[in-house]
Structures are given as C-alpha cells and as structure tokens.
C-alpha cells in the first residue's frame, strides 16, 4: 500500500507534482503513466524519501519511508538504472545493499540468478548495457523479498524477451498480494501488465481507474446492415451517437452490443456484423493526455 | 543495525579501486618520504624530534587522506550510486557515520603501522643520545598525535564530501585547508598571518607544524578537531535536508 495525500513538489519555479492524492492498492499491478516530464519519477522519489515534498505526504505501508527500519525488507525500488558505481562489480553493489539491511550474502546470489546476471556477476557494472543495468536494478529491488515494489521505467532498454520476463515477474508478484507500482511513458508496455492505471499530466492526476474502465469508456460497437440508414435512425432514436464508416458499416457509441442488437431486432433490420471495438490503450491514453504533454516535438513545416 | 551499516560501508569502500590506489600511494609517500628524511638526518638531540623528522612524509600523505575521505561520499553522489545506498539506508546521518567510521578506521590503521615503521627508521638511521625507544612517552605522544591527526583529516574530508558532493570541489577545498593555506598564511607572517595559520586545520604532530605556524600540540589538535567536527556536522545536516 502506497498513499499519496496532496503530494506537491516544486523545483524553484517549476511545479513537478501538483496536489496528487492516490492510493496504490496491493494485489494488483498499478501502471503509473504520463508523458516524459509529467512527474512520475519525482513522485517515486518523494515516496522513497529521496526528495522532500513541498507539501502533502507520501507514505508506504502507513509510514513515511524514511521511518522504515531495514526498508529493503518491506519496499523494493528501481529508481534509476544508473544508480551504481561503475567501478564496482554487480556482486559487490548488491552485497553492500544487502549487508546494510542485514540480509545474508547468499541472498545476493539468489537475486543474481533470478534476474539472469550469473555470467557477469563479478564484472564491473561500468561495462553493463542499459538492459543489464535494469536487471541489476530489479535484482536490488528484489533483495529483501519486499511486499511493496516501485519500479520506474523498468523495461527501458530491455529486449523483447526481457520485457516479457518483467511483465510476468510483475504479474506474479501482484498475484502474491504485493503492491506493485510500475511507471512507463509507453502505454503499449502497460497493456498486458497493469490492472489499474494512474495517469499523470504536468504533475496533475488525470485518471485513477481500472484498466478495463479506461478502455471501456471509449469503446464502440461496429454494426453492418444492408439497411444501414434505417438502422442509424433507429439507433439515434435510442440515444446513440452513430457515424458511418468508409466501408458502409456504422460506428455506434453510447450503446453496448446487446442494446444495438435489440434495437436492430425491434426495427426489423437484418444485421450482418456486430462487433465490440476496443480502442488500443495507446489511443485512450493519447486522448487523455493530449493537452498535457510537457515536451512536444514541433511538426515539420 | 550499526554492525550491518559498518559491514556495508566496508563492502562499499573496499569494492572500488580508488580506495586501494589511495592506500598504495599513502604507504609509498609516507614511508618513502619518512625514510628519506630519517636517512638525511644524521643526528638529533631528542628522540621525539628524530621521530617527528621521520614522520615528514605524512605532511604530503595527508593529501591522500583528503582524497580518500572526500571520495567515500562524493563518489557515491557523482556516480548516482547514492540513490541506491540511501534507498537502502534512509537514515542518512547513520549512513554517513558508518562510512566515516570505516574510512577513518582504515586511515588510523594505516597511519599507526606506517608511523611505527617511521619511528623504527629514526631509531636505525638517526643518532640520538640514549637511542630512540619506542616506549619513550614523548615518542609515543608524537606517534599518537600523528594517528589522531590522520583520523581528523579524514573526518574533515568526509564532511567536505557530504557538504559539496563533488570530488573536485571537496578535494580542492580540503587540500587548500590542510596543505596550501596554512603555509601561505605562515609565510605572509605578521600577527594575523600567524594566527590564521594556527587557526587552520594543518596536520600537527609535535610542536612543529608541518609548513605552518608552530602551535602547542593540544591547541593544534583542538583546532584540527573543531574543523573536522564542524565540517562533518554541516555535511550531515545538509545530507539530511537536501534531496538526493
């Protein structure tokens, strides 16, 4: 459980996080989404006690993070894959962290195996690729077998196999009843991972909804009939918004497929196709954050 | 908890090459310069003065301790490793204290071994009436001051590292404080120059400060300790307050 209550962080003249109130519940993967610069990392840094909130509070398991004794046993975090000394070996980096929380040295070997870094455990991390750095960061987060996990962009730099591995790992951890908060600026990465979404834009909360609800909100029904104009009139009478598609089908918003079928039956119109159209998460996300992008590339003239 | 933090700090310091480079350079400078100084001194009237001459190398060696102490903190911040370290140990003052204890203990151990070796060099190479006895109270005091001075320089350097978080800044300021400004002020002379030199944290072993204005050893030790504790205290305070 992670709770943010009116969390605000101001850097000199820039409001990075603006009055954010969110509860991240255990037992599900919560996707933390927003464009670059929308305040995701700053929020996580406030939760982990690395940055001091300007106003409001952030607690983990009911207490401010900095009051946790041996925090690695309760909370695991990946904030920055570069958070390591390049001259240290992966093993030494993890061993120093493990020892600081009283964890035995064998736990290091276990997490190294878990993330698949056995072959390079005694290499200096300065030579690691971004993907290997992410695996090392995930290993550090898992050291204390924590009940809460915060991972900032964990799949950045991972290959497709690594992305799938992270996805399955996170789903498995959430299924065990842990709290999992994972940030990303790419909606597509979240599509098969998150159960719940918290969406930020310019530091403000845009949405805190179950994944299904976000997708359902902009769902539509596609219906095809040889007597499309008659069906369209009947559907509009029933309160739906109807638009003809280029191929002659109708796009219906505001009614579910069952209601559309009933309307067609009542109107005596034959139906040749009736499909529920779920928009891509990407489209739903862009619709939500369209006006909130902090850094937008100019269009070529 | 404390033992865990100390073990962690030891792992952290022992797993970077800079610690071992500093150790090697410190040994070569302190032992080499000490041996040369002792060899270049044929005779002395007092045992503790003969030993103090043999300890000349530490005047240069303290620069290595400045680097070692500053790096213990600044390397963590410079590389971003501090983020991982302070997520694991959010009690930042305890983290800094453990880091300081380990690096200062290492400096104390190295200095004690090297100082005794230098005293042996003085005993072998310098003619002193009655010889140089390592159990002579004056000799023991000189050696003890050398170890205390090394510890305090290291603590000062760790404090500067926490204060500035920058290796270049910390090492630059540390060297200025312990190595450059004291002799510059002493050379400037006059009442103010001498006072300034005496008030700066120069490593003092015995009555003669290395390249700085002479100061009675209890005063010198107190000045050094005041600088070290102030820098460390400010470093800890800022570490607690600032964002990482």
Percent of residues in helices of chain B comes to over 70%
State the oligomer: heterodimer
Global shape of chain B: globular
**CATH topology term of the largest domain in chain A:** Rossmann fold
N-to-C span of chain B: 22 Å
Main β-sheet description of chain A: 6 strands, mixed
Q: What's the structural domain tally of chain B?
A: 1
Task: Please identify the structural class of chain A as seen in this structure.
Answer: alpha/beta
Computed structural class of chain B: mainly alpha
The number of helical elements of chain B comes to 10
What is the strand tally of chain A? 13
Instruction: Provide the CATH top-level class of the largest domain in chain A.
Output: Alpha Beta
Major sheet of chain B: none
Average pLDDT, all residues of chain A? 90
Give the H and E element order of chain B.
HHHHHHHHHH
Protein described:
The complex is a heterodimer of chains A (301) and B (244). With 301 residues, chain A is of the alpha/beta class. Chain A contains 10 helices and 13 strands. In chain A, the strands form 3 sheets. Chain A has a 6-stranded mixed β-sheet, sandwiched between helices. A 4-stranded antiparallel β-sheet of chain A has the order 11-12-10-13, with helices on one face. Chain A has a 3-stranded antiparallel β-sheet with strand order 2-1-4, covered by helices on one side. With 244 residues, chain B is an all-alpha fold. Chain B has 10 helices and no strands. At the A-B interface, helix 2 of A face helix 1, helix 4 and helix 5 of B.
């Amino acid at each position: 459980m992670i709770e943010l209550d009116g969390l605000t962080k101001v850097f000199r003249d820039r409001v990075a996080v603006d009055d954010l109130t969110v509860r991240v519940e255990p037992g599900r993967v919560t996707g933390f989404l927003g464009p670059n610069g929308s305040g995701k990392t700053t929020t996580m840094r406030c939760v982990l006690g690395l940055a001091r909130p300007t106003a409001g509070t952030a607690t983990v398991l009911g207490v401010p993070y900095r009051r946790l004794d041996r925090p690695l046993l309760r909370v695991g975090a990946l904030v920055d894959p570069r958070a390591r000394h390049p001259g240290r070996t992966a093993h030494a980096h993890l061993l120093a962290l493990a020892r600081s929380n009283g964890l035995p040295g064998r736990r290091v070997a276990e997490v190294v195996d878990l993330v698949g870094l056995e072959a390079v455990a005694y290499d200096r991390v300065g030579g690691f690729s971004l993907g290997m750095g992410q695996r090392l960061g995930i290993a550090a987060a898992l050291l204390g077998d924590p009940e809460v996990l915060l991972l900032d962009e964990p799949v950045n730099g991972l290959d497709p196999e690594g992305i799938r591995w992270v996805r399955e790992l996170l789903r498995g951890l959430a299924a065990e009843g842990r709290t999992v908060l994972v940030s990303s600026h790419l909606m597509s990465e979240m599509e098969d991972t998150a159960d719940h979404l918290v969406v930020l834009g310019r530091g403000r909360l845009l949405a805190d909804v179950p994944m299904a609800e976000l997708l359902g909100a902009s769902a539509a029904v596609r219906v095809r009939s040889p007597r499309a104009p008659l069906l369209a009139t009947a559907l509009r009478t029933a309160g739906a918004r109807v638009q003809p598609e280029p191929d002659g089908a109708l796009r219906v918003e505001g009614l579910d497929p069952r209601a559309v079928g009933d309307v067609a039956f009542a109107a005596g119109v034959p139906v040749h196709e009736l499909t529920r159209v779920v928009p891509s998460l990407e489209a739903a996300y862009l619709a939500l954050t369209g006006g909130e992008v902090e850094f937008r590339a100019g269009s070529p003239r | 908890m404390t033992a865990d933090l100390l073990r962690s700090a030891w792992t952290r310091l022992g797993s970077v090459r800079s610690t071992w480079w500093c150790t090697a350079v410190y040994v070569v400078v302190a032992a080499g310069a000490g041996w040369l100084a002792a060899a270049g001194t044929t005779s002395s009237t007092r045992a503790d003065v003969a030993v103090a001459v043999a300890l000349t190398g530490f005047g240069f060696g303290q620069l290595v301790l400045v680097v070692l102490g500053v790096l213990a903190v600044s390397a963590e911040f410079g590389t971003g490793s501090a983020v991982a370290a302070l997520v694991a140990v959010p009690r930042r003052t305890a983290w800094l204290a453990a880091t300081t204890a380990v690096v200062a203990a290492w400096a104390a151990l190295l200095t004690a071994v090297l100082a005794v070796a230098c005293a042996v060099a003085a005993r072998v190479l310098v003619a002193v009436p009655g010889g140089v006895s390592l159990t002579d109270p004056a000799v023991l005091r000189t050696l003890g001051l050398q170890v205390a001075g090394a510890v305090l320089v290291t603590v000062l350097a760790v404090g500067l590292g926490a204060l500035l978080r920058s290796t270049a800044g910390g090492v630059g300021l540390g060297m200025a404080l312990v190595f450059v400004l004291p002799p510059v002020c002493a050379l400037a002379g006059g009442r103010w120059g001498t006072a300034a030199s005496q008030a700066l944290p120069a490593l003092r072993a015995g009555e003669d400060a290395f390249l700085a204005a002479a100061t009675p050893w209890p005063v010198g030790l107190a000045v050094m300790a005041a600088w070290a504790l102030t820098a460390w205290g400010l470093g800890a305070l800022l570490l607690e307050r600032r964002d990482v």
